[in-house]
Amino acid sequence: MQRREFMKISALGVMAMANVSLFANESVKTLNLGGVNLPFVGLGTLDIRGAEGQKAIESALKLGYRLIDSAVMYGNEEIVGKAVKNSGIKRDEIIVTTKIYTNINKNGVKETLLGSLKRSGLEYFDIYMFHRHGGSRTNEAWEAAVELKKQGLCKHLAVSNFTPEEVRDVCVNFKDEKPLINQILINPFDQKISAGVAHKELGVALQSFSSFGGSGASVLGEQTLINIAKKHGKTPAQVVLIWLIQREILTIPKSMSEKRQAENLAVFDFTLDANDMNEIAKMDRGQNFYY
Predict the structure, then answer these.
(1) For the chain, is the Cβ count within 10 Å smaller at the N or the C terminus?
(2) Tell me, what DSSP letter sits at residue 92?
(3) 240 Cβ contact partners less than 8 Å away, ≥ 6 residues apart
(4) Euclidean distance between CA atoms 161 and 91, whole angstroms
(5) Where are the alpha helices (DSSP H) in the chain?
(6) What is the Cα Rg of the chain in Å?
(7) Catalytic (active-site) positions
(8) Maximum Cα–Cα distance for the chain, whole Å?
(9) Residue 209: phi, psi to the nearest 5?
(10) Using the 8-state DSSP alphabet, how is residue 31 labeled?
């Protein structure tokens, strides 16, 4: 990676942490985007199911998590809804996401959202996300989703696994209803630097999944991260999370362990310096995980 790209990453880190207006809530750090406070650390729930899964979600909410990411294809909307209701936290203080993966068309978006609401027992979802690009039907599906938003069935629309070009198309075609978030794979092996710049220009937040590398590609054993973690008295996972946050990227690390859930929230008491950011920049393999 060229030096100017190192400097770009370092600058992003300094800018993010220096802009204190980003942190709207002292207990749950958030990114304010268009008046919406989006927690930098939310809970991912892929493969979190059943009674134990519900307990894990309830644990996260008790610890201070205020964004729960779910999806139709995860098969866990019911326990997410139950955990939210059992938490004792005001509904408007928790951001709940669900995603549509198939039937991304004019009729499918309504049918799918109504099904998600029924399963979860919730009156609305805060974020309704297109889990993938719907091809030629994306525009008609988005128009239908906008109507659902007007009806109060969801508060915000978002996308996942869209390329910057696909996000830009939605923004151009729906200037008043552009995506709030694009959820994509971002980690030190696949840093998506250009995507970060493009989305910032569009005013669309990036949210990272597989922040630690995902199955078969874990970054947490990399010596670079181990060295930086020792320097700050943190874990490699915490280093990855603050690296993303300093780039103004939202995260949704998944864990059923209360200890790890707490560790993933305990990342706002340190920052990475320019040297740390540059060392992590060298880990980028430029792999493209869009699909």
Answers:
(1) C
(2) G
(3) 187, 188, 211, 212, 219, 220, 225
(4) 28
(5) 3-18, 50-63, 77-86, 108-120, 138-150, 164-173, 193-202, 223-232, 236-246, 258-265, 274-281
(6) 18
(7) 74
(8) 53
(9) -110, 165
(10) E
DSSP β-bridge partners for residue 98: 128
SS3 205: strand
Supply φ then ψ for residue 68, to 5 degrees: -115, 120
Backbone angles phi, psi at 183, to 5 degrees: -95, 115
Contact 179, 159 (CB under 8 A): yes
Instruction: Indicate the residue type of 30.
Output: T
**Cα–Cα distance between 58 and 43 in angstroms, integer?**
11
| 199, amino acid identity | H
- End-to-end alpha carbon distance in the chain: 24
Tens digit of pLDDT at every position of the chain (291 positions): 444 444 444 444 433 433 333 433 455 699 999 899 999 999 999 999 999 999 999 999 999 999 999 999 999 999 999 999 999 999 999 999 999 999 999 999 999 999 999 999 999 999 999 999 988 899 999 999 999 999 999 999 999 999 999 999 999 999 999 999 999 999 999 999 999 999 999 999 999 999 999 766 789 999 999 999 999 999 999 999 999 999 999 999 999 999 999 999 999 999 999 999 999 999 999 765 444
CA nearest to 279, candidates 253, 252, 240: 240
Question: ∠ CA(180), CA(267), CA(181), 5° rounding?
Answer: 10
Which DSSP string corresponds to 101-149? Answer: -S--STTHHHHHHHHHHHHHT-S-EEEEEESS--GGGHHHHHHHHHHHH
The crossing angle, in degrees rounded to 10, of helices 258-265 and 50-63 is 30
Residue 111, both tokens: 């049918």
